[in-house]
Design goal:
Elements lengths: L7 E5 L5 E7 L11 E8 L5 E9 L11 H10 L3 E6 L4 H15 L2 H10 L1
Antiparallel strand pairs: 1-2, 2-5, 3-4, 3-5
Helix pairs in contact: 1-3
Amino acid sequence: MSIQIHQAIEWTGKSGTVYRYYIWPRRSLVDGNPPGNFILVKETEDGVLAPVFIGQADDLNHRISLSDPKIQECIHAAGVTQLHLHVNRSGEQARMAEQADLVARWEPVCNVQETTRDV
């Protein structure tokens, strides 16, 4: 699968809601510091896109959850190749709901690790 930067891609949550994201280089900064959701993705050799971590932030340039060393370790070990961004100005509650919907559907390895660590 040939992916272009800023190409739109749709991710479907467990609820059936479809969310439109845009593909960015992994360490990108976004003009205007918008709030939103993000997905760190690994593209496999056969072109399959696998979510590794799904999160949300008040500022997509400061993805706070990624400062956790255990999550960083997991993301590095998983071999993330892409960053998918979705600007979401509907407030933190809406961003958290989107995150939860997508995590419930895709069960990304680093979100699952985060959950089991908190138990």
